[in-house]
Amino acid sequence: MNVVLTICSSNYLAHALTLGDSVREQGPDFHFVIGLVDRIPAELDARRCPYEVIPVESLNIPGFWDMAEKYDIVELNTAVKPFYMEHLYRRDASVKTVTYIDPDILVCSSLAPLLEKLSRCNLLLTPHNNTYDDSPANISFELGALNYGIYNLGFIGTARSDETFRFLKWWQKRLQQLCYYQPGSGFFVDQLWMSLAPHYFSGVGIERDPGWNTAYWNLFERRLSQRDGKFFVNGDHPLVFFHFSSFNVENPTGIVKRNQMHVATFAERPDVKPLFDEYARRVVAREVAVFKKIPYSLRQHLPPEKFLSGRGIKRAVKRTLRSLPAGLQVKVFRLAQFTMNSFKK
Question: Which of 79, 129, 151, 196 has its CA 20 to 30 A from that of 333?
Answer without folding.
Answer: 79
